[in-house]
Amino acid sequence: MNPFIKIITQPDNIAIVIMIFMVSFFMVWAFQQALRNDKLRLTGYAVEGELDNDVDTYKPLVRIEMIISLVVMVGLTIWSVWVDAPLEEIANPTITPNPAKAPWYFLGLQELLVYFDPWLAGVVLPTLIIVGLLAIPYIDINPKGNGYYTFSERKYAILTFSFGFFILWLLLIVIGVFFRGPGWLWYWPWQEWDTQRVVFEPTRDLSSMIGIDSRSWGGFIVGMVVVCGYFVAGMVAPYKYFKKKCPEFLEQLGMTRYLITAFLFVTMMSIPIKMVLRLVFLVKYIWIIWFVPGGLNF
Amino acid sequence: MENENNKKASLRGYIFAILSVVLLGLSAWVIWDDEFGLRPWKNYQQEYKSLKRDKLEKEYQQALIDFKTSGDAKKLADLEQQLKQAQDNFKKKEVHERYLQVTARLNDLKRKVDENQKAMQMVRGQYLEVEYYFTKGQKPADKVRMDALQKQIDSIDKASKAFQAQLAPLQQEQLTLMGDIPAIEAQIEALKKPLAEKKERIANNESAPIEIRQRMINDANKADRCESCHAGIEDTRQVTTKHPYSKHPLSFVYLGNHDPSKFGCTFCHRGQGRATTTIEKAHGNVHYWEEPLLKGGMTQTSCLNCHGDIKNLRGAEHINQSTELIRKYGCYSCHKIPGYEGMGDVGPELTRVGTKVNYSWAVNWLKDPKKYSSTARMPKFFFTQEQAESVADYLFSMSGTTRHDVDYMSETPDEKLVEQGKVLWSQARCNLCHVTSGRGGNHVKMYAPELSKVGGKVNKTWLFNWIKNPNEYYPGTRMPQFTFTDQEIKGLVEYMVSEFTDDEAEMNYTTPQPINAASIKKGKDIIQQYGCYGCHKIEGMEMVQVAPSLKAQGVTFLKNDEMREKIGTELTSIGSKPVEMLDFGKMKKNITNDRMSYLKQKLRDPRSFRLGLRMPNFRLSEKEVNELAGVLYGFTDANVPTRFLVPSKAEIDKMANVAPYQFTGDFAKVVKTVKCTNCHSIKGIGADYAPDLTFAGSKLQESWMRGFLANPDVIRPLLQQMPNLGLKSASVKTKITMPRFNLNKQIVQDTNKSDVDVVVNYFQQELLSPDIPKTIPVVSDIGMEQQLAAGKQLYEQKGCIVCHQIGADGGAIGPNLSNVGNRLNPGFIFVHLENPRKFKPDIVEPRYGFTERERILLTNYLMTLKLTNSDANKK
Amino acid sequence: MNELFDKVKKNLIWKSVFRRDYRNTVRDRALAIFGNVFLHLHPVKVRESAVKLRYTWGMGGITFFAFIILTITGIVLMFYYHPTVNLAYEDMKDLEFQVPYGVISRNLHRWAAHFMVIVVMIHMFRVFMTGSYKAPRQFNWGIGVILLVLTFLLSFTGYLLPWDQLGFWAITVGTNMGAATPLLGYQGPFSEYLHITPYNDVRFALLGGATVAGNALLRSYIWHCIAIPVIALILMVVHFWRVRKDGGISRPQSN
């Protein structure tokens, strides 16, 4: 069978295919409505829902709820009759399947393991994701766009969130499911997965690119300069920019809020930067704090 | 006002309705699917039921016809007539009235007995209550009550006994009054019983429920639902041969010894016992199920899971035959295989090989052994000319010789010596083990080297010394020491060298050439890389054979086999090795990716998977590949409950700290030189080629033993290994007998006995069975003459003649009985006739179920069958 | 026919259940909502935009509905399941081959679980896109984020229960991350200072052992079937309550 068909028809992967379709559909729908509302606003009309009246809950809402329940029930039943839940061999601690994959919704994090050490990819970053999500209502002080789809009124918020949600979360999941095979090597959909495949890909650390041993004090300093420099620059530069362009916004935001926002944003952006460094320049670590037991490497 | 657009509302109503109907339909589908779609075994059981019904009906109809035609029907009519008469008698007034009276009194008595019993229960209950309080409180008042109650119990008991005593005569009278009625009724019942039983079977079949039938093995977490479809597998009578309803083949062996309720199905057959939905799933031929179903002879591979010893195991013939291949090719030399530890070297010792063979021969042999002899067991290592020369150089240098060949082709042999040797060659029956020009080699499990071209291989000096005393050159050899004189041996050597010449032999080194040191070094490396020392003892290879772990402990020399570092992969659990762990390499696309295909490919062409593999090619036939793969498939780490395990005798002895049996005294020396156990099995030691001698002392007569040992003759006319006995008339002529070892000529050192004396003594002292009596019971009511006549009659009646020969008459399957009276002890014949399989479980002879008297008569008759000297001479 | 209807409707039992006739008046429509324990989660009247599928996509409701399906099928499955190493896998096989409606129950449970994870993520996307986390709904967004995490954890803990290679290694890979926790995981940075070993680190606490084995299975089972559902249910109650108290489904503030 064609390897592509084989992989997308695996029982568990059908859910991912369904997810891709559902997410794309709702993404388009959301932005369509946002753009229409923006157009309405621009031409001075009220946005959708602004002039609505109250209606009785019984029966309009109840009826819709019932219909949706039925649709979901019918859909799930057909899915369940059509596809059987997978059950592999009995658990055997001595045989590690290749590839050994986490549940699909964590494959984005597993993909990050290529670029970061486990303590970052598996612990610190997920924690920051949750913290970041929780912080959103408190750092987004833009009062506009509450209760309707809009894009022009909250460009920065929507672009940042979409980047995180679609690219860093969902796209990495899709890559983890469909493009990562044995040895967590990259496989195109038309390639057959091969457990024997060997890929020789030497990686290096950033400081060794300029001839300094990354596990020396010199390498440590180079790494520290780059990493700290990135964070400082990433947080200071926008500050200067806003101070010049719209100081009242900065005032409204306040220093604490600015620092949190900037830190979260810079951290998020560090992920694609590290991915590019790793994939294009074969850089494994930027900063190795080699004297910490257990290894604290960035 | 309901502020919802009416049109929209009604549309939504319709959608709701339609969706409800769809969900209802889906639910119906789910129910149907669960009831029928996922339960295909229901259909199988229905069909089996109807097939069984047809068969039972047919049997019933047949029985009815038989009933009518056999006269049973008439008997029944007669009996019914009698019954009617008896009943008429019973209905006569005075009898009937008396009967009613007796019945009334009986009922009265029975009622009284019942009442007594009830009263007894009441009093007993009270007694127990009071006893409880007394035990607890120790109040004297309770004790008084207890005694009173005990008195009551006694009196009730007494009354009961009195009633019981009255019952018996009344019941007797009742029976007398009924006359013949009960007896006749019982006869009618008995007559109708077979028919009734058949009818009951039909009814049972009808009322059998359609349900999942499973065998639960709780301690192994198994639930084998195979019988849900294979509904007739446990039947003792075949209902139909139609698949999957037939009964288990050889079920009296397999199911008889392995009660399905204790063993289930999948311990032997593998497959997915719990699965019921499709054939593929149930048989385990699906992804994510590693153990597909084993069918037919392949199933015997599972015997290895539990049985420590499958030799002589009924039903394991196929796998037993296959395991012989492991011994034949010595797989255990390079791979660790449980049960094959300490087996000894499969190949000859090579420490002095340079003094034995020609250098050119050795090089060619190393390159391709099968080119020299088609029966060669040594595999092909794909050596280049240079590599083969290096190996030979190493071996020859270790023997202290140079590159040299001896060519006898140009010499003219001494005709007289050759003639003597030729006679000796056939007298000593060398061809029994050795093949020459396609002849001989009957003893297939001996793997003696082919000698067709031996003249181009070895030198005369070596051959002379070898025949004189094989143990001297190679202590582990199976070659027996024949007691030939030097002159005889000379003739034999001359005959062999001149007769079995090798026309194609290369002789490049008739003038010896020195060996260069670099080549020796290279040869040593090759020998180490390919592990030649696994099969051969090689000088200078002792160090590499020590396992690294032992080396670390300071052990630097080889003590025994167990210290060896096996060069190949361990095979202990190859049969359950996960497919993912098998390296298919470049064969991945060419063969199916399952364990069996891997094993077969590995055996067929070991180095086909990738570069750098070391396993040589044994060039097995496809049959051997299948058999060997079948055996390997059975080497599993299957989790078998200990209650299933049947350890071999050796294992039991080891557990019980019993030392394995060892031959003692002079007999041990005889065995060591003559190698009796090459063919005979004695107390579990040795091969199964010739008769088991464990009880020879009880079985054989002394005079016959002496005669036979000194001058062996044919007893058994057939190759035992031939399975389709008697089908090929040509092979019937093949004679098997013992080689002439020229025993009796030599005096065993220290004692003043000949070796025949030693053997006979040992047999009579050690090889005895307590089950074989020295004498047999006597029949005294008729005279000896009549007994012999009766015995002869029995011999003819029972068809013994079909298999056994007396004189020139009779079949050739069993041993010839012409001289049995001289050969066997009567006690043995007597016991043997009772159960031929007692001493030899795989014997062909059936169990006839002779009575003791018949056995005495037959034994007496057989003991008269004796050949006199004149008869023997005539022959 | 109508007579029969009347008779049924005047019956004491009918009356005790439904209390009164429904006459499609404003009062009756309102009563239908707050007279019913399930429906009275809703206000009697809602904004028209809240009814529009286009706006809410019904994702929150679908998530809750999936949770209900999972609860029901989950209870069915619990009847046939032993959380022990010896029996778990065999019970799965029995569900497939022998238990009545075992196949459909397990399939529904598995696919509804995947579906719930997908839907809950889309729900978060919708709430973000309509800015519904903004005042006064900041707290409810936080509850939602925690519910999202709980949904992942529910699915994750359920993954191990069949005790097959897929679940076993998914959990092994997943919990190995715990071993890398700074300070508290034996492979994480700084843990040496706290004398952390494989036998006292975070992963050990998660699995009840140094490897995925019987204890991990039991822990998964209890988290999956009792602990997390209960926590999630409590948070859901808060979540729904706050939706109403914070002014119902978000909508544009009228200028």
- Structural class of chain A, by secondary structure, is mainly alpha
CATH fold label of the largest domain in chain C: Cytochrome Bc1 Complex, Chain C
Rg over alpha carbons of chain C: 24 Å
Main sheet overview of chain C: none
* Strand portion of chain A: under 5%
Question: What is the general shape of chain C?
Answer: flat
Our count of domains of chain C comes out at: 2
Unreliable spans of chain A are none
Globally, the shape of chain A reads: flat
Contiguous helical run count of chain C? 12
Tell me the helix content of chain C.
55-70%
Structure description:
The complex is a heterotrimer of chains A (298), B (875) and C (255). With 298 residues, chain A is mostly helical. Chain A has helices at residues 3-8, 11-42, 57-82, 107-112, 118-139, 155-179, 206-209, 217-245, 247-253, 255-281, and strands spanning 54-56, 288-289, 296-297. In chain A, helix 5 (118-139) runs antiparallel to helix 10 (255-281), helix 8 crosses helix 9 (247-253) and helix 8 (217-245) packs across helix 10 (255-281). Helix content of chain B is 48%, strand content 2%. Chain B has 33 helices and 8 strands. In chain B, a hairpin with a 4-residue loop joins strand 1 and strand 2 (222-224). The N and C termini of chain B lie far apart (127 Å). Chain C has 255 residues and is mostly helical. Chain C has 2 domains: 1-45, no CATH class; 53-245, Cytochrome Bc1 Complex, Chain C. In chain C, 66% of the residues lie in helices and 1% in strands. Chain C has 12 helices and 1 strand. In chain C, helix 9 runs antiparallel to helix 12. The longest helix of chain C is centred in the last third of the chain and has 32 residues, at 214-245. The mean pLDDT of chain C is 90. The chains are: A mainly alpha (298), B mainly alpha (875), C mainly alpha (255). Chains in contact: A-B, A-C, B-C. The interface between A and C is large, with 97 and 105 residues. Strand 1 (54-56) of chain A pairs antiparallel with strand 1 of chain C, so a sheet runs across the interface.
